[in-house]
Amino acid sequence: xxxxxxxxxxxxxxxxxxxxxxxxxxxxxxxxxxxxxxxxxxxxxxxxxxxxxxxxxxxxxxxxxxxxxxxxxxxxxxxxxxxxxxxxxxxxxxxxxxxxxxxxxxxxxxxxxxxxxxxxxxxxxxxxxxxxxxxxxxxxxxxxxxxxxxxxxxxxxxxxxxxxxxxxxxxxxxxxxxxxxxxxxx
Length: 186
Prior knowledge:
Layout: E1 3-7, H1 12-16, E2 26-31, H2 38-45, E3 49-54, H3 63-76, E4 85-89, H4 95-110, E5 118-122, E6 136-140, H5 142-149, H6 156-172, E7 178-185
Parallel strand pairs: 1-2, 1-4, 2-3, 4-5
Antiparallel strand pairs: 5-7, 6-7
């Protein structure tokens, strides 16, 4: 799977789609800050990424720029390689996530998409308020996820939430390991 993962903030891909972070995928982070050291983690995992300088809580003002960045990446990719999966945040109360979701939908319609390319949405803390209904679960080992989460000592309360969320998804799917949820649409 060659996935293009769109992340409003640096921590989003680690907490919501860690199992997709592989050298053959690419992460685009739109936020202007990396307080949590995500770039070092992505470097260590050999995951290609770009970071852009959009200020948090100002994403809606930059929507045309977001659309352009996404569209260019979908059309040309790295060295002309195309993606088979577009991974985006789901709609929720967070305006930055919503702006990236809307920009991704526009860019995917406007760009020369690959036939059969899937769009996967990953949840946010409160995505279930917006009737987020995952139709695909992807298993990720507890040790792998905890090792990534442990890299964020300044936000230890997140560990509790991510752990509980992943355990819930695993139990929901009768799966002994942790899982990540995605809503997949073509």
